[in-house]
Design a protein that fits this description.
With 107 residues, the protein is an alpha+beta fold. It has two domains: 35 residues, no CATH class; 47 residues, no CATH class. It is built from two helices and five strands; from the N terminus they run H-E-E-E-E-E-H. Strands 3-4-5 form a three-stranded antiparallel beta sheet, with no helix packed on it. It has a two-stranded antiparallel sheet with strand order 1-2. The radius of gyration is 22 Å and the shape is flat. The relative contact order is 0.10.
């Protein structure tokens, strides 16, 4: 019985690890750095290897939803097109959301 429980835990733990992948947008980072200055490209296994510049990712892709929001087609994240909620050209106290307004906006 103990062996069965341990096997179940290992299977579930592995499934959780696999489920943690997600897509991100490429940052277009092309420079490499050590702890103080910019350096040349880095070979796999060398010190400082694995920096963002070593990898290319998904190209940015966005959709204007036509309702004041933008959706990132890679990550699925959505945000306001502008925080200027009252349209006066200033981002100030009048543009804030109350706690209840924030809750209502996602309902």
């Amino acid at each position: 019985m103990k062996l069965f429980i341990i096997a179940c835990i290992l299977v579930l733990n592995t499934a959780c690890l696999e489920a943690q992948t997600y897509r991100i947008v490429d940052t277009k980072q092309t420079q490499f750095y050590d702890t103080t200055v910019q350096i040349g490209s880095i070979a796999p296994g060398a010190a400082f290897y694995g920096q963002d510049a070593s990898y290319s990712g998904n190209q940015p892709s966005y959709t204007d939803n036509g309702d004041g929001t933008i959706t990132d087609n890679i990550t699925g994240l959505m945000w306001q097109k502008t925080p200027d909620r009252d349209g006066d050209g200033d981002i100030d106290y009048d543009d804030k959301l109350s706690y209840q307004e924030a809750l209502d906006s996602v309902a």
